[in-house]
Amino acid sequence: LLRRLWQEKMTLFFRALEISLPDMLSRSSRFKQLLQLWQCITSNVNRCQSTGYGAPPNFPAPMSRMAAEPFLNGTSSIYIEEMFESWKNDPKSVHKSWDAFFRSVEAGMQPGDAYYPPPSLSALSHHVASIDTKTISDHAKVQQLIKSYQTRGHHIADLDPLGINKADLDDTVAPELELSTYNLSEKDLNREFLLPNTTYIGGDRSVLTLGEILERLKKIYCHHIGVEYMHLSNREQYLWIRKHFETPSIMELTPDEQKRLFKRLIQFLAKKWPAEKRFGLEGCEVLIPAMKQVIDCAAALGVDTFVIGMPHRGRLNILANVCRQELEAIFCQFSTLEPEDEGSGDVKYHLGVCIERLNSASGKPIKLSVVANPSHLEAVDPVVQGKTRAEQFYRNDTRGDKVMSILLHGDAAFSGQGIVYETFDISGLPAYTCHGSVHFIVNNQIGFTTDPRFSRSSPYCTDVAKVVNAPIFHVNADDPEAVMHVCTVASQWRNKFKKDVVIDLVCYRRHGHNEQDEPSFTQPLMYQKIAKALPVMDKYAQKLINAGVVTQEYVQAEMDHYGEIMETAYSNSQKEMFLRNRDWIDSPWKTFFPSDMDLKLKSTGVSIDVLEHIGNIFSAVPKNFRLHSGLERVLRGRAQMVQSRTSDWALAEAFAFGSLLGQGFHVRLSGQDVERGTFSHRHHVLHDQNVDKNTAQPLNELWPGKQAQYTVCNSSLSEFGVLGFEVGFSLSNPNTLVIWEAQFGDFSNNAQCIFDQFIASGQAKWIRQSGIVCLLPHGYEGMGPEHSSARLERFLQLCNDDEERMRAPGPEFEGGQLMDSNMIVANCTTPANFFHLLRRQMLLPFRKPLIVMTPKSLLRHPEARSPFDDYLENTRFKRLIPEDGPASENPEQVKRLVFCSGKLYYELKKERNNKKLDSDVAICRIEQLSPFPYDLVKEQAEKFKNAQLIWAQEEHKNMGAWLYVHPRMLTALNNGRSVKYAGRAPSASTATGNKYQHMREQNKVIADTLEVTMPGVNHYKMVKAKFRYCLFQLIFDPSVDLPNSSVTSSTIYGAVIAAIKSVFGEYGLGQCKHLLKVKVFEDELGIVVIRVLDAHLQTLITSTPFVRQISRIPAILKCLFIGGSIRACAKATLNYHRNNLIKDLPKASSLDSTIIMNTSS
Predict the structure, then answer these.
(1) Are 214 and 156 spatial neighbours (Cβ–Cβ below 8 Å)?
(2) Taking the C-alpha atoms of 616, 618, 619 and 625 in order, what is their torsion angle to the nearest 10 degrees?
(3) pLDDT tens column, 918-956
(4) Strand, coil or helix: 591
């Protein structure tokens, strides 16, 4: 009876083991259940032997008839119960043997009789005694071995065509890939093991020998493909990849596919110009069929537009063989021909192109756009992504089903250039995602002359891609069929998951960095091997011949045919007399430019109805929306301005955006903190204070269903990547106002490469226009060297206008200047002029980049306001705002004519009024610095013909606009008059970090501007800073017990500082923080006196109502008095308490109660 019981339980156990291993052993919890079941059986038998009873021991009360089975304990019964419940819902959800078992139990069979072992395992009953825990352990070890190959197999893959290096720079073999790690050996190779459901290597077989398992794993993971995908956190994604590599025979090509692959490997440029500097693909010829494979697969899945970015290596091959640019146009680039049209042009391996052609695989038309780029490696990446996003936006392709990007990289650049990470970082952000890109890395295992061991710290050059959970496929570039499979999987991955994927083509570079470079100086052994290596086309041709797929005659015929096509095109190119730069436009706007362009600029004003409509919507609180109390005040202020028909900077910007949206122009504003604005002035996205993620965008509700879309999006903390993205966005469609705003203008130099290589010179090099607008906060307010200057001088230096040539006057003077310029630089002083500048950007018949030095302090300056009349029809942008005060009435009597730009105007005007010099000094504001307003400067100089000319600026002499405007002013004056400089002295740093030093320098600038040449007037004296003292009463929540000494001057100061920051941002805080101080705190009376500069008094008074707690104690600050000294505050305190005492006396019944009431108050 005991033997029978043992056999019955062991047979059932092994049946459960067979059913469950593929699913259970890979999961620790299920494996523990099996072990518990095994322990249960052993324990029961031992108990039967020790007690002498043949019957099984008692079990807990059964939950069903299933629990009456004698082999079940509490743990396993729960598991069987779950399986039984699943069977009742769907009999097919369990194994057939369990189905039969459950049916027998339901039919009424007694426990122990319902199970019948399957024929395949009938022999087990005769060998049960020989089975032990080692069998289970070995199954688990084999499954761990399979997982190790899936995780680490790529480390020992045969990836280097030269056989020199490991792609991960590590020649060791991971212990996890050794049999000995699992106590297995060659003796176990013929043993059969069950395969888990986490692998597909078995195909239709569920059992393989250990030898077969190893052979298949090595072929999949350690041959010519190394698959990195186990870092993915999404189970569906890594199982999908596993299936597309592990399924048997999935990588095999048909003979027709092999023939097509061979044809795509044929190259020509290397034969015709072997020594020409062209950055050829020799050593990675497989890139051409690889790109074609990705494009073919994507096109078959519905993609019809491809935006491509790549470095110089292989560009001409891509243009000829992938994009099918006219071969004659390519060959002309190798000739010394004069350009026929505009532009300075660029070297042939930087050029872009836009081609529309028929895709042979899908039979549908596709568009290929290769974006032109400089030699600055990887700089084109964000530009490509921005252009891709724009194409998707205009086609309403919200999932990237129609438009995708392909990016090519070099190995050293991919791991070395920070812009690669910046581009990956924004790839998943809602306003920047392109829904996945395919990345190719031409990994020639060397960076110019630098060995990879000295050019990166990571094992692979691709490791940066793991930050976005991108799968990475390393592949030996000398195995074209492996490359084709990887490309197919990559294209399908991008289509299914809309995520990035990286293809690492491990190859070599047959020549040096270019065809004229000698690489053996630094890599002698590598190039000895390269010299002996056969080209991949020869290797593959021989493979196909040996396999009987093609013959030698077929190979030769195909090469001859391709050669004939190339020779014909080459012959035709020799007949060309000129180069046509327009053949290389990567972003053509075919229907934008009018045939008869009118350069007479039109009005940029709008009607009063439009202004009032935008103003009313922009200042209204959305319905059923709980707005922050501080923002309610801001909106009330806007409504008051609309009612009084005036505007500040934020309202003027809204007028510009809103009116353009109403005219059908899409507006996109991007940058760090642009939704609110760095200086808390914009608030284009309102946030509900009670409902998370409930936001409102008033500018998208101006004319619902009739206006264009307004996009405002906070970016990542990046300048280089985000500005590049916005430049790319601006290339796609000229009818979009694309704006990038820097947090502070000083930070824009992080994106200097984009300014230099794409914005300033893009049209000259590549005949493409961009209307990108860059808003760069600029102005000296004592914020230190990184929060003062947007480096105006650098942008002016990039402008192409000739300082010695003034265009002939006429009605098209202004428009002609703009047309001839490469970009526009402006520094506005009024909201209305800023409004007209933005609108003019869209209403011009062409596009130019616009750089604007935007204000900080002028955002809330009481004089920086514009009446509605300055926005109406027949108004326009003013390149120069002339003097309109008393000095203009008697110009002959004016002694000085000051030209300036930006916020300095208001400081000069204030001091001129203080000194009563309004009739002696005229101030003109140059709003557009480039192109320079020669005509208007000349007109003002002639008007004030007796005045001395002065250029005034806040910046240091070697910075700012001085070095740009000085020679141009002389040209405008025909060198007939001199111009004096007034400003800071030359400096290595843009600004001082000391507040006192800043004030001293600023006062000197004003002094030098107004009085430096006035006879009989003393030199302007330094004025001591003027302070205001604010008296506050500190009121606590009476229901809260105050800890002793918890509130101090320091904690009050901290609360005030936090309130200022919350209302005015870091900029407003930085302005007043330095000299703000809590001078008096009397805790018994709750009296606080705070000192602040007079210029920042309004900032303090506006912020203190937002103090809600001090030292985590609910409290408020009530302003009682503002004076010029502490003594005045003391008097105000006495008066305040005296008044309270008089008010409380009638309520008092005795002197004691009066004292108590007065103390409480």
Answers:
(1) no
(2) 120
(3) 999 999 999 999 999 999 999 999 999 999 999 999 999
(4) coil
The amino acid that residue 993 corresponds to is: G
| Residue 819 and residue 798 in contact, taking contact as beta carbons nearer than 8 Å | no
- Give the E-state strand segments of 778-905 in sequence order: 824-826, 850-854, 866-867, 880-881, 896-900
pLDDT in tens, 219-247: 999 999 999 999 999 999 999 999 999 99
The answer to whether the beta carbons of residues 683 and 631 sit under 8 Å apart is: yes
Residue recorded with tokens 């955006």: 657
Long-range contacts of 806-813 (CB under 8 A, 24+ apart): 806/934, 806/935, 806/971, 806/972, 807/934, 809/935, 811/600, 812/599, 812/600, 813/935
What is the model's pLDDT at position 1021? 44
Over residues 344-356, the pLDDT tens digits come to 777 777 788 899 9
State how far Cα 56 lies from the chain centre: 68
Angle of CA points 584, 589, 592, to nearest 5°: 145
Sign of the CA dihedral with 176 first, then 180, 186, and 192 last: negative
Q: Helices (DSSP H) in 574-620: which residue ranges? A: 608-618
Beta bridge partners of 440: 408, 503
pLDDT-derived band at 1042, boundaries 50, 70, 90: low
Are 652 and 831 in contact by the 8 Å Cβ rule? The answer is yes
Question: Which of these, 383, 384, 389, 373, lies nearest to 307 by C-alpha position?
Answer: 384
Domains of the chain: 137-246 (1.10.287.1150), 284-571 (3.40.50.970), 608-778+827-856 (3.40.50.12470), 880-1010 (3.40.50.11610), 1027-1147 (3.30.70.3250)
Count CB-CB contacts under 10 A for residue 28. Answer: 10
CA–CA distance, 195 with 180 (Å, rounded to integer): 20
Structure tokens at 279: 């950055």
Residue 755 is given by DSSP the state I
Alpha carbons within 13 A on the beta-carbon side of 596: 0
User: Before 931, cis peptide (omega within 30)?
Assistant: yes
